[in-house]
Amino acid sequence: MADIHSVIGTKNKKGQTYTDTWKLMNEAPRTPSFFTGSEVIKEALRRASCDVMIAYPITPQSEAAALIGELFAEGYIGDYFRGESEFAVMSQCAGAAFGGARVFTTTAGPGTMRAMENFPMWSGARLPIQMIVTCRGINSPLSIQPDTLEIAYLLNTGMLVWHAETAQDFFDWILKGYMVSEEPDVHLPLALCCDGFFVTHTKDVVNLTPADMCLPPYDPYRSPVPCMDMECPPVRMMRDPFVMKSNYISYATHASWQQEIWAAVERSRKHSIHWLNGLIDTENTDAEIIIVASGTAVSQGREAIRLLEDEGVRCGLVKVKTLRPWPEEEIREATKNAKHIFVPEFNVTGWLAKEIKATIPNPERVHAGPRVCGGMTMPPEIIVSEIKTALGMKTFSLAGRGS
Amino acid sequence: MSDYRVLPGPEHFLPPAAASMGICLPNPGEAHINGVIAPEEKAYEEAARQFLMAKVPTIFPGPLVLWAWNEKAAKKATAVRHLFNTLVECVQPGQKPMLIPMPDYRPKYPKINPEVEINPNHPNLTIWHNRIDCCMFIGVHCHQANLSLKIIRGGTSCYTIAMCAQAGHEDAMLSFRDASVEKIMKLADTVKRLKGTVQPRLASAKNGVSS
Questions:
Q1: Of A23, A152, B73, B196, which cross-links A351 as Cys (Cβ 3.0–4.6 Å)?
Q2: CB distance from A3 to chain B under 8 Å?
Q3: Which residues from A are below 8 Å from B143, CB to CB?
Q4: Closest CA of chain B from A113, distance in Å
């Protein structure tokens, strides 16, 4: 039986030292490295003491999945294989996690949608699997380009859902994510999302922790459900469990079970704040105009704020890091002075704006946009234009460019 | 801080999870009483008082202490037995301590025998049948414990205590965390110390905290 504290300071078979995660993330020296987001996923996994990674190719996560295969060949991952489909991959991830393994996988777009049935199952079974979602278009006609619509489908699965802005977020949050999701009072899967291509396929300077230091291993005996118990729910799902019966007790049990999943999401709040230094980051929240965004829309918002400053318009920024748990109190506090709240998004429905409108008083302050989708970029100028239009300021149109 | 308080029920047709009402788990060295963070010392006193007030104070040991899957579990089981024996010694005539196991989590069909066991999927049946008005969960996996604690709060007036080996339970009316042999023994010592100082309750556990 693993005891996390007893292995700190000892070495694994690759010669890496199991290191207290707080020290690893906050005190260990960092080396600036110029990597793509996909390469950063690989480097995070090298340090994650991961037992099992299961892969299936789908753009734009294929490169990360292949790179992690190299890690397996080098001996850093306990087991690695390709599933038959995304649905199979996520089911196989569940099997590995039921058996007490630390599990990792990556997917994107239609792959996320194809595997969707598994995600509430993971949550219900309290499996702390980590899944990278490199978001892309999901609808016909086919698009492999960046689009965050799939995140909307993940929000009610009972998974933790975080949205990384940069490759640095990715590196840190992959490692910290295991610390949050493996807490016994949480013990839920984590969907760590990013905007495909923008993060996965561009290079950035990322400060890496030493490669000879790694996370302590997962201890499945702290799980809130029995590990690998074939006789009881959640492993035993299809033979005479309460879910297959029709009576009041069965319904009440299932209701209580669902409540417990969402209670665990709530409990993750404390741990997420501890590891991520808050569920949101803020700048200039005393301003009357605030941009609230997640993912790479934050970067575009930041640039728009710089452009607006040149024109004498002061604007604040809220970077939403965790979508589940949802930073309700934090957003309410950060936007309390705002007369106008702009929510730039890379999807057609504006799911983030809807969440914010449901969270804050006087939701008419929310301008749900600008929005782009289908792989379009979001020039900071269109955010600037949206804000100036709302303020009644003269602005130019970007629509005619190229005609 | 949340205004919600975790009190004996029956609370609701479907009571909420206390965590969703803003109740937070204690940090190491702390406990919670009715959803309010309290020093662990205060929780020992309150738990002992609730046991000594109850007509049917009951311990529900779960698989983590019922099965000798490691040395620590075996020692905890011995400590749980000691706590039960202490309760038997310390209660007054008319009070009836019970020790009812939750040996596994399989839904029991067609019918559970509430005389001999409790099940997380319908714990209220065992509580109703034995008229249990105060119980303590120990050695039950956290998910199943929370499942049970919510159902008990929803449909019974039983006062619930959790002696949790991990982070504790908001859905209990009183919860310890990081349970150890020492903590179980300390609770037994507190029961012994308060023997004769607490009046057994004649009515239901509805009032919650003792004065």
A1: A152
A2: no
A3: 126, 187, 224-225, 260
A4: 28
Q: Of the candidates B153, B183, B177, which has an alpha carbon nearest to the alpha carbon of residue B26?
A: B177
Residue A149 lies in domain? 4-222
User: What is the average per-residue pLDDT within A380-388?
Assistant: 96
Q: How far is B7 from chain A (nearest CA, A)?
A: 17
pTM of the model: 0.95
The reply to whether residue B150 touches residue A260, judged by beta carbons under 8 angstroms, is yes
Shared domain for A12 and A145, answered yes or no, is: yes
Say if A340 falls within a structural domain: yes
Overall domain count for chain B: 1
CA distances from A297 to A146, A165, A177, A199, B42 (A): 12, 8, 22, 12, 49
Last residue of a domain, one of A222, A242, A264: A222
For A297-333, how does the pLDDT look when each residue is reduced to its tens digit (9 = 90+)?
Answer: 999 999 999 999 999 999 999 999 999 999 999 999 9
The CATH number of the domain holding residue B112 is 3.40.50
In whole angstroms, how large is the CA radius of gyration of chain A?
Answer: 22
Cβ–Cβ gap A184/B166 under 8 Å: yes
Task: State how many domains chain A has.
Answer: 2
Task: Assess A242–B contact: CB distance below 8 Å, yes or no.
Answer: yes
For residue B142, which residues of chain A lie inside 8 Å, CB to CB? 184-185, 224
Retrieve residue B118's tokens: 């409790």
Residues of chain A found within 8 Å of residue B14, distances taken between Cβ atoms: 252, 255
Please report how the helices B40-53 and B181-194 are oriented relative to each other, as an axis angle in degrees rounded to 10: 60
The pLDDT value recorded for residue B202 is: 62
pLDDT tier, A403 (very low <50, low <70, confident <90, very high otherwise): very low
Domain of B119?
28-173
Cβ–Cβ gap B107/A256 under 8 Å? no
At B209 the pLDDT is 42
Q: Does residue A291 share a domain with residue A171?
A: no
- Flag if B168 and A242 touch (Cβ within 8 Å): no
In a domain, A248, yes or no: no
**Does the beta carbon of A156 lie under 8 angstroms from any beta carbon of chain B?**
no
Is A325 among the domain residues?
Answer: yes
A153 belongs to a structural domain: yes
CB atoms within 10 A of CB A197: 20
pLDDT tens sequence across A245-275: 666 677 888 899 999 999 999 999 999 999 9
The answer, yes or no, to whether residue A205 has pLDDT greater than 50, is yes
Render pLDDT for A52-110 as a digit per residue (tens, 0 to 9).
Answer: 999 999 999 999 999 999 999 999 999 999 999 999 999 999 999 999 999 999 999 99
Angle at the Cα of B81 from the Cα atoms of B77 and B83, rounded to 5 degrees = 115
At which of A184, A199, A222 does a domain end?
Answer: A222
Q: What is the mean pLDDT of chain A?
A: 93
Closest CA to A295 of A371, A387, A208: A371
| pLDDT score at B211 | 34
Contacts of B120 in chain A (CB under 8 A): 253
- B182 occurs within a structural domain: no
Let me know: does A48 contact A215? Beta carbons within 8 Å. Answer: yes
B91, part of any domain = yes
A179 Cβ under 8 Å from any chain B Cβ:
no
Verify that A327 and A218 share a domain, yes or no.
no
